[in-house]
Amino acid sequence: MNVASAGKAPWIISSSEQPPALEIVLFKQTLILSWNQFVYADGGSDELRIAFASHDVVVKGAGLDPLLAAIASHRVASIQQSVRSDRFPAQAGRFIREIVVRKIDGD
Questions:
Q1: How many structural domains does the chain have?
Q2: What is the domain extent for residue 20?
Q3: How far, CA to CA in Å, does 18 sit from each of 60, 70, 75, 84, 99?
């Protein structure tokens, strides 16, 4: 799989093929969610919601519009929460301030 970074964005987009899963890298945890379990995504430039059958993922930041488009085509291989120093860039840009992952209980 060839991958391409979306500029200075903290996500990796596959340039050649659809990756089998989305890797979500948090500060103390990494989750792998299969694209086969993807339900839908919605949002805008500052917040996205990505719904999988087993988990809901909320991504907050800035400049997230290209990420939403790549998610719609299942081409995102990885997203990563920005380190503290990257959360407040001097210029407006693309960054992920926070990623919240919630497991959906089947009860």
A1: 1
A2: 3-103
A3: 24, 10, 5, 30, 22
